[in-house]
Structure formats: C-alpha cells, structure tokens
Design a protein that fits this description.
209 residues, alpha+beta, 5-stranded antiparallel beta sheet, 17% strand
C-alpha cells in the first residue's frame, strides 16, 4: 500500500511538471506567432490569436484606432459570427471598455449584447490594451463561456507576457515601415524612387499601417 501511495505521488508530480512545461511551451508558441510579423495589418489578427492561445480563451475581439483620438473599430474577431462581433464591439464602446487606458483588467461580470444571449455564451472577460510608444492604439478583449473558469491572476500574468511581445511586434513593424519609406523615397523630392517602382512592378507588397 505504501509503495502504491508513493507511486501515485510520483506520477502526480510528473503530471504537474508536464502541465507546467506544456503551459510554458504554449506561451512561447503564442509569442512566436507575432514576433516575426512585420505587417501591421496582419498583426491585428495574429495578436488576437496569440492571446487566445496563451490564455485558453474561447472568444476574442481586436479593436484598433485608425487615427489619433479616433474610435476603436473592430478589426479582428474569433469565435463568433461577424454580426455578433459587430454588436459586441459596439457594446464594449458603450460600456467604456474600449478606451485609451493602458491598464490590463479582468472583467468578472459580462453580459452579451441584447438579442445575442444565446449566440454569445460568456461571463468572464479580460481587457488587453495594445500600446506603442506609450500610446494605446488597440484593445483586445478575451472572453470565456459559462462552463469555463473565470479569468484569474495566473491568466492575467500569461496575457501580460504575450501582450508585451505584441507591443514590441507592433513597434518593430512600425519601425520597419518607416525604414522602408526612407529607403524608397528620394531625399530631395520625397517621391518614390525607381527602386520602389521596380519592387511594385514585381508585386512585392510594401507594409501597410
């Protein structure tokens, strides 16, 4: 009996170690999703995917500003139909969740928009701002369903880790775009030079903001 108990304790320890390693690997893979991307448009989608993967959330929205002090507009959604995503994004703006604050917060009590209670099964959320040069340019909001556990401090820590990588990825993409603009524009006229024309004629897309 003592041998069986000791063996059970050993197996449980191995299981916990394996679960921890699996969680760390998931975080690493989530960060890899965004760290190698230099296109801002693609990053808006990948950032939602990375946070969903890193936290185990089932539904996510990405809202971003197109201009300074402009509204946060829906640019990416996962786990719901487009119509439901648009309604949910509007509710987040109305409730003040989509705002320029740079604070990450857990939203313990969330209700779906009117008329989408059946389609959107959610009760816990997390707000993850996207900040570039100390300015909040986007908000990613994650959700879990009624049968899933609410977000806790551990989830918040995992999301913070992924979010830091997302912020750096957006900064890198912005710097890359600025560098290309400097290379492809004439210093005197500010117009695109022949090198840029040749690239465009070869159908090699320039990064877009």
């Amino acid at each position: 009996l003592k041998f069986a108990v000791r063996r059970c304790i050993e197996v449980r320890g191995l299981f916990e170690e394996n679960s921890e390693l699996k969680g760390l690997l998931t975080l690493y893979e989530s960060c890899q999703m965004v760290s190698h991307c230099l296109d801002v448009g693609s990053l808006k989608d990948l950032s939602v995917d990375a946070l969903l993967r890193g936290t185990g959330a089932s539904v996510g929205l990405g809202l971003y500003q197109e201009e300074v002090d402009g509204p946060f507009l829906l640019k990416a959604s996962r786990g719901m139909a487009e119509e439901a995503a648009i309604a949910l994004a509007a509710k987040l703006r109305e409730d003040g969740i989509a705002n320029p604050s740079a604070e990450m917060t857990v939203l313990p009590e969330l209700t779906p928009p009117e008329g989408y209670q059946r389609e959107l099964d959610m009760h816990s959320g997390m707000r993850c701002p996207v900040t570039v040069t100390d300015e909040t340019n986007g908000i990613i909001v994650l959700f879990r369903g009624q049968k899933e556990p609410v977000f806790d401090a551990m989830d918040l820590g995992a999301a913070q880790f992924v979010r830091n990588q997302i912020n750096m990825a957006f900064e890198n993409a912005g710097s890359y775009h600025e560098a290309q603009q400097m290379v492809f524009r004439d210093d005197l006229t500010g117009l695109l030079d022949r090198k840029s024309t040749r690239l465009n004629s070869s159908h090699i897309p320039l990064p877009r903001l």
